[in-house]
Design goal:
Elements: H1 2-45, E1 47-49, E2 55-57, E3 73-79, E4 82-86, E5 107-114, E6 117-126, E7 135-142, H2 144-179, H3 181-194, H4 210-253, H5 258-287, E8 294-295, H6 296-310, E9 315-320, E10 325-326, H7 330-347, E11 351-359, E12 362-369, H8 376-382, H9 399-409, E13 413-418, E14 425-432
Helix pairs in contact: 1-2, 4-5, 5-9, 6-7, 7-9
Length: about 425
């Protein structure tokens, strides 16, 4: 914005400078020509035809420079067969006459006939009383005085416009800086809301932008209300389905018929969907908490004890930065770590290792096991909801899908890789650091 303002200011000042230079130098030139025209008219009025039929000046022109050789101010009268009648200031030189004019108007032009002196010339054709000859009256003056005045004007005009342009650019920069200060404040406030530090733009701002802030806060409140209503509807629906599904599964368990098997299979599928959406609804609802923070190491220790109780043959170890904090609700963090640790203990070979670290603005939780691992072709597929590569182990196949969805809700991600140290699967969980 400042660059565009500076460009427009420069263009306008340069254009205005050329226009102003043209006006000022034009006025100086017209004033210069007016003074020569006055002398030309005086010379014509002082001229008459003598008894010999030649032109002569009855009264000498008053400017002393006409009598000083090469003074820079000259006059000349030419016409007929007479030698040009000229001022003493021309000395042995004479003014050349361009193409004859057929009118009696004053003509003005610049002449370079003298190598060391450029002239400004005014001339007029006049037929004097008592003569039929068309006499050419010429008055000339060196352009040095005119050019000096023009240079003086430019020497003042250019620095003045440059200083004016610099001042306008600085003023535009200051106006932009201070004028956009409220927007920068709003941007920081929005960034703080995304980072979970604030829920609203609550700092006092100028009256000009306060209506926009009020509308923004109203929009945020409206969106939060809609999200909360959607979460409640999803949760209520999932809970409403959970009880009938349990009844169907229990009823079908007592029978071995093909219909009962179909009911159990489809009810299990529905149960997985219900569990999945319940987990998402809980995560979305807790994501609205502005000050959500949890220490990763505490969560890993707590969940490790619970998993160790479920799988006593598995060995769980952890290392890394014990101070890493993530912008995630503790309950959701426990669910994320718990799903991953339980999968590693269930499908691994007995050894599970957790590494906690931080890279830039993201916390990294690496969970490795010594199991068979997952082939690269199956790694993307296994994260889908309900996909199980080992149907011999109990479970719903929702663990990794829930981890992915909840991590993405908080702005994180999950990636499956091969463990170089243990040879099994390595799960890389990344979450925003607090």
């Amino acid at each position: 914005m400042i660059a565009i303002a500076a460009l427009w200011i420069s263009v306008l000042l340069i254009g205005g400078g050329f226009a102003l230079d043209r006006v000022l130098t034009g006025a100086i030139t017209r004033n210069f020509d007016s003074s020569l025209e006055y002398v030309l008219i005086a010379m014509i009025r002082s001229s008459e035809i003598g008894p010999d039929g030649e032109v002569r000046l009855v009264e000498p022109l008053g400017d002393q420079r006409f009598l000083e050789p090469y003074s820079g101010l000259y006059w000349q009268i030419s016409g007929g067969n007479q030698e040009p009648y000229r001022s003493r200031s021309l000395w042995e030189r004479s003014l050349k006459a361009p193409t004859p004019h057929v009118d009696n108007q004053i003509h003005t032009y610049d002449s370079t006939q003298f190598p060391d002196e450029e002239l400004r010339v005014l001339e007029r054709n006049v037929i004097l009383p008592g003569s039929k000859t068309n006499w050419r009256f010429q008055i000339a003056q060196s352009r040095e005085a005119l050019d000096t005045q023009n240079r003086a004007v430019r020497a003042t005009l250019i620095p003045s416009l440059a200083l004016l342009g610099l001042g306008l650019i600085i003023l535009a920069a200051l106006q932009t800086f201070y004028g956009l200060w409220p927007l920068r404040h709003i941007r920081r406030a929005i960034a703080a809301m995304r980072g979970g530090q604030n829920r609203r733009v609550d700092a006092p701002l100028p009256l000009e932008v306060q209506p926009m802030v009020d509308e923004l806060n109203a929009l945020l409140a409206h969106n939060e209300k809609q999200a909360e209503e959607a979460r409640l509807h999803a949760g209520n629906l999932a809970h409403a389905l959970k009880t009938p599904l349990t009844v169907l599964v229990n009823s079908a368990t007592s029978s071995t018929s093909e219909l009962a098997e179909t009911v159990r299979r489809e009810a299990a599928t529905m149960q997985r969907q219900v569990d999945h959406h319940l987990a998402r609804a809980r995560a979305v609802g807790r994501r609205g908490a502005a000050q959500a923070r949890a220490t990763v190491w505490d969560s890993v220790n707590s969940v490790s004890r619970a998993v160790a109780a479920l799988y006593p043959d598995a060995r769980l170890d952890a290392a890394g930065d014990k101070t890493v904090v993530v912008r995630v609700e503790r309950q959701d963090l426990d669910e994320l770590v718990g799903n991953l640790l339980e999968n590693a203990a269930k499908y691994g070979g007995g050894s599970v290792f957790v590494t906690v670290g931080r890279e830039g603005g993201m916390a990294e939780i690496l969970i490795e096991d010594d199991g068979a691992g997952i082939s690269p072709a199956d790694r993307d597929r296994v994260i889908d909801r309900g996909v199980r590569l080992d149907s011999g182990k109990p479970g719903t196949g929702l663990g990794l899908a829930i981890v992915r969805d909840v991590a993405e809700i908080y702005g994180g991600s999950i990636a499956l890789e091969e463990s170089e140290d243990l040879g099994g699967l390595l799960v890389r969980l990344r979450l925003p650091a607090g």
